[in-house]
Write the structure tokens for this entry.
Amino acid sequence: MNDVDYLVISSTIDYSTDLICCELEKRGLNYLRINRDHFSEYNILYTLNKDTLSITMDGDPFVITSGKLKSVYFRAPVFLRDIGKPCTLQEQLYKSQWGSFIRNLISFDDARWVNHPVATYRAENKLYQLKIAQRCSLPVPDTYVGNILPDNLQVERTYIVKSLDTALFYNNGQEMFTYSTMISGQELLNAEIQCAPIIIQEYLHDKTDIRATVIGDTIFAVSITKNGCNIEGDWRKNEKESLKYLPIRLPINVQEKIRELMHNLGLYFGGVDLAMVNDIYYFIEINPTGEWGWLVSTAKLPIDKAIVDFLVAGCAE
């Protein structure tokens, strides 16, 4: 029986998780990776009286014991968004019940979670994170949420429109995803938005996009440009290969506000998007399960090592 010190919860195709597992391997640490898309292939049994979880994978037995498990790296989302995608009854059963199983793993509450599912769920709510950011004195663009337009909308101004939650839909077998969109006030006046709430924000002109990846108190920040220039609208609409990620050091006061934000959200890890305009660092959003793997190769940032350092440090506290 193999005792597990570090548990990794993810899916089969996840590059960031691959990097974490490689680093755990290099350090010779006892870890187990379970992928939510392969749960039915494992033999899993939780025993309440012993507070242990036994998992057999490919004939190899592993045991997770409360009090001995040191850290959990949690990459699986709290809720799987399959809006509009047809599922068989068996698929619906699999997703709902294994999703509940993942959430119930919070019973191993002596371990350090990166991040805890409860904190992840709370922090995924955009209106809530914007409010907490303001509370931490991080500047936030003027923001409105609803299915009607604000009274002070100006037809000649440009605004940013985004979904309140990740907008992933399926139509005739095709997957559709929406990004933040630049739109004029006049276009908004002509649009039909009654059926669903949206986020409307002031457009920040000549902004420099910044991604700050936070692990504990460590912040890895990069500026994001295309062909040496700032990017209008959502930088994620561009191919990653066409963008340049330059490591930067954020001002101390901005770093302190980000750490305060993380503390208030109960997060140990987060991908924070900022926009700098005239030396003012605006908070755009935080993703508690944000991608970071591409920054290891493109910006040469040791994010994988920092995450494993943090997982290991958790058992010493």
About this structure: The two ends are 27 Å apart (CA to CA). The longest strand covers residues 218-226. The chain is about 25% helix and 30% strand. The chain has three domains: 2-114, 121-140+206-302, 143-202.
